[in-house]
């Protein structure tokens, strides 16, 4: 259902494409598609969606939100689990038409507009034998992804995405376009490396590129028991930094490459990415093959973009999710995960375990606004379901699993957190000194909290 145009606030009725880029209002043919976000349970109706093409148009859009007092949401790829990229009855700044990418091969750097997707950037950079590490989703937007920190297939080798961020351009709440880096506005540059979209609209990022001719990587499906899961995580931890591993312990979807007798039952679906010579990668990956005979083995030498299978840009799954870090995946933890996964009635339920460490952990905790450098394993717990009436059932399941495997690390990673109150934001996502510093920087650049459709950092007072 869409709001009739007649109900749109007066202030936004006269906006033109010429001023703002594209202007999409309720009633326009594109409106329903443009307001949809990845999260399938989010159904919001903004008063207007602005699709700027230039930083000047972004500044004008920010000024409009400020002047009208309407709510403001900023969106790059629309993949926020909480649907932060869209708001009801307010202004959405959608950067989808700002997807330029300039690669300087000699300097090993790239300027990317914030609306480009991780997959688009990765494919273009790979044509030059270069890469910046993003996550495992092709359609995820660079904007939200980078601002939260960025953990992916090159994290143990080269660090987080923000560790390759060299500079950015950002329109702040007062409409000014600032260039930020280690020397100019270093406080703001620190804050946007993990602090999310709290400080303004980033229009462009400058990234470091790494030489990467290809990887030894892909998907390996293994049967799962608690000892197998414990052994897989132990191998991933013991592996050299070249290997970044994402281990999904899931009830198997009916994928053609998974034997039918496993459909609906727990399996390990591991994504392995060795960013180095294929021969060395094979030696490392063979250790996983030796844990149990794989049910499917697609790990091989391939171009880096091969790590990203094509994704449906129109997918809108409903997911109950919790994010947390674990100190270790021992036998007891593995057993608990398997018991819970087996008991779930969701379409697909499971735990995604990402072994951290390597280059990511060698950066000082206080160097960026991402506070969890020393965490060992990130666990992202999910239940995917179709019927919104089942929400309570799956939320209870996912909360129960989180409680059952909780260890000493009480942190959470902003990019994967769905709904969080102020207590969780300040204690788990931005704990201690990180949260305090972010609140002071927020007070300086966004004292009225214009940018609040996010995991919000409340401006410090006094
Ligand atoms: C399928 C899938 C795979 C994923 N894989 C990974 C992964 O491997 N690693 C990982 O770290 N994360 C991963 N994520 C999480 C992802 O990084 C976050 O959801 C991220 O916020 C998405 O960015 P976006 O631009 O697509 O989202 P949006 O919903 O557009 O934005 C998310 C947040 O960032 C803000 N924002 C977006 N763009 C800007 C901008 N230009 N300026 C200021 N604020 C902005 C928004 O206001 C919002 O608060 C994944 C998510 C999905 C759905």
UniProtKB/TrEMBL annotation:
InterPro entries linked: BBE (IPR012951), FAD-bd_PCMH (IPR016166), FAD-bd_PCMH-like_sf (IPR036318), FAD-bd_PCMH_sub1 (IPR016167), FAD-bd_PCMH_sub2 (IPR016169), FAD-linked_Oxidoreductase (IPR050416), Oxid_FAD_bind_N (IPR006094)
GO MF terms held by the record: FAD binding; oxidoreductase activity
Required cofactor(s): FAD
Domain of life: Bacteria
Keywords: FAD, Flavoprotein, Oxidoreductase
Tagged with keyword Flavoprotein: yes
Gene3D superfamilies found in the cross-reference section: 3.30.465.10, 3.40.462.20, Uridine Diphospho-n-acetylenolpyruvylglucosamine Reductase, domain 2
Keyword Flavoprotein: yes
Limits of the FAD-binding PCMH-type domain: 42-212
PANTHER family: BINDING OXIDOREDUCTASE, PUTATIVE (AFU_ORTHOLOGUE AFUA_1G17690)-RELATED, FAD-BINDING PCMH-TYPE DOMAIN-CONTAINING PROTEIN
Membership in a protein family: Belongs to the oxygen-dependent FAD-linked oxidoreductase family.
Name listed for the protein in its UniProt record: FAD/FMN-containing dehydrogenase
Native organism: Actinokineospora cianjurensis
Lineage of the organism: Bacteria, Bacillati, Actinomycetota, Actinomycetes, Pseudonocardiales
């Amino acid at each position: 259902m869409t709001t009739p145009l007649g109900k749109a606030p007066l202030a936004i009725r006269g906006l033109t494409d010429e001023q703002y880029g594209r202007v999409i209002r309720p009633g326009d043919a594109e409106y329903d598609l443009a307001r949809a976000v990845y999260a399938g349970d989010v159904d919001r109706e903004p008063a207007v969606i602005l699709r700027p093409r230039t930083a000047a148009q972004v500044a004008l859009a920010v000024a409009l939100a400020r002047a009208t007092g309407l709510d403001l949401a900023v969106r790059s790829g629309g993949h926020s689990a909480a649907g932060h990229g869209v708001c009801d009855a307010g202004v959405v700044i959608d950067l989808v038409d700002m997807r330029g990418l300039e690669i300087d091969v000699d300097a090993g750097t790239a300027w990317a507009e914030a609306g480009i997707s991780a997959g688009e950037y990765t494919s273009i950079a790979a044509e030059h034998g270069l890469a910046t590490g993003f996550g495992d989703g092709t359609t995820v937007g660079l904007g939200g992804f980078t601002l939260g920190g960025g953990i992916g297939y090159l994290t143990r080798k080269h660090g987080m995405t923000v560790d390759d961020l060299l500079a950015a351009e950002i329109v702040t709440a007062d409409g000014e376009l600032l260039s930020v880096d280690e020397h100019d506005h270093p406080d703001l540059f620190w804050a946007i490396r993990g602090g999310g979209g709290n400080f303004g609209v980033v229009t462009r990022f400058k990234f470091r590129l790494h030489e990467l001719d290809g990887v030894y990587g892909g998907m390996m499906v293994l049967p799962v028991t608690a000892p197998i899961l414990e052994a897989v995580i132990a191998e991933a931890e013991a592996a050299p930094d070249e290997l970044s591993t994402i281990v999904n312990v899931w009830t198997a979807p009916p994928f053609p490459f998974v034997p039918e007798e496993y459909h609906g039952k727990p399996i390990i679906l591991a994504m392995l990415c060795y960013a180095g010579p294929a021969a060395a990668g094979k030696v490392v990956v063979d250790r996983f093959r030796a844990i149990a005979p794989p049910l499917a083995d697609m790990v091989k030498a391939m171009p880096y973009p091969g790590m990203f299978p094509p994704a449906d840009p129109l997918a809108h799954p409903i997911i109950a999710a919790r994010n947390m870090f674990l100190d270790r995946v021992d036998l007891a933890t593995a057993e608990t995960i398997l018991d819970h996964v087996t008991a779930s009635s969701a379409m697909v339920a499971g735990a995604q375990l990402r072994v951290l460490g390597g280059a990511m952990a060698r950066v000082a905790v206080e160097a960026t606004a991402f506070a969890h450098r020393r965490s060992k394993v990130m666990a992202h717990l999910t239940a995917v379901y179709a019927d919104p009436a089942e929400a309570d059932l799956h939320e209870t399941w996912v909360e129960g699993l989180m409680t059952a495997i909780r260890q000493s690390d009480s942190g959470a990673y902003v990019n994967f957190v769905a709904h969080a109150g102020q207590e969780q934001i300040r204690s788990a996502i931005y704990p201690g000194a990180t949260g305090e510093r972010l609140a002071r920087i927020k007070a300086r650049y966004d004292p009225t909290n214009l940018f609040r459709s996010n995991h919000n950092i409340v401006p410090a007072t006094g």
